[in-house]
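In this supplementary section we document a worked example of the pipeline. Step one takes a protein sequence of length 426 as its only input; no multiple sequence alignment statistics are reported here. Step two produces a three-dimensional model, which step three serialises into structure tokens for compact storage. The input and output of this example are shown verbatim.
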Amino acid sequence: MTAPLASGYRESVLWHEAAPLDAGTGDGPLPAEVDVVVVGSGYCGLAAATELARRGRSVAVLDRGPLGVGASTRNGGMVLPELKAGPRTLATQHGDLGRRMFAAVDEAFDHLEALVTGPDAIACDYVRTGRLELASGATSAAALRRAADELEEVGHGARYVTGADLAAEIGSTTYPAGLVVERSGGLQPARFHAGLVARARAAGATLHPHRAVTAVRADGVDTDAGTIRAGDVLLAVNGHVDAAAPDLRRRTLPMGSFIVATEPLTAEQQAAVLPTGRMAYDTRNLLSYWRLDADGRMVFGGRRSLRRTTVRQAREVLRDRMVDVHPQLAEARIERAWGGEVAITRDRLPHCGRSDGAWYAGGCNGSGVALNTWLGHRMAGAICGEELPPFAELPHPRVPPNRAVWLPIVSTALRAQDRLDRIRRA
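The serialised model returned by step three reads:
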């Protein structure tokens, strides 16, 4: 069935309507020399530029497109302090490094909340909603039960929910169990990005959109508008790695993720689908994630497969998934649809350190709102001589070179795992 579309339907990013991308040419001509060039104007790059400028460094931020055109203004706005494993599992797998990585994610969440609350807060509709992770079947339900135990061991508010407790969280019978974690929230990602832009400029960084870096040099960068000499370069490009950073490109996989947004729902509809207003997502490899925005729209995202997908194809798949989960929304019309790319790493963990003669950070695997912001802040400290974040101690494995061959194979295998888990209901 073709998705019912609102009369004003557009394939455009909903968040940009309240916080349009800056279409200008930036802060004047490129400087001939700065202390630090930051490549990428998303959360990570802007946070790094702000901290560096506040420490007295001269900083130029370059982006090959408009400021924030990538995932930083296209994501679902979920502030999730999480890795793909809990604290006990991380400690078992990585020892003390695992414990420090979990602590880093906690610190990243606190860092973001400090930016969006208080007297100098970035206005971005932030609410600490908590999150609801939903099990597709027996295997994932058991994993969520273990995750609840692990989080409780370290004093986090976490509850494994089934039956009436699950029904109080979500108006759906699709999932047999869920995990509620209180330390999570939601924000308007483009408004948050606009706030970071303002803070970077106020600190003294200069921002230069529509300036592509073509090569990283030992003494700076080459761009399509000339060379900038710099003592340090930070690659804060996340999933948008190109030929200017060939080694990092071999270690990062850009993965499409898509979102549809309905027209604003009635108060009754909102209460019927997400009575607690949490950020929700399921445990499938090709997951779905959803939330209500500040205007009461259902914002529903996910991946159709690992293959290339158009916004129109993804729209139909996501609308069908949305109605499978929430039949109450069968008549809800789709108002917006858009896509973007997240940075996936082979081990599903973030990474930072040195690559291609430059500093770098990224690879948050779809959970980068808080983590990428914090990584930028911490990488600024590292450039100034402080300790690197713990993720720098991880080996950073390469992804297989022939992506056109292995991605369809992996995609088929992941879908098979998802189907098997759903068959084996708890």
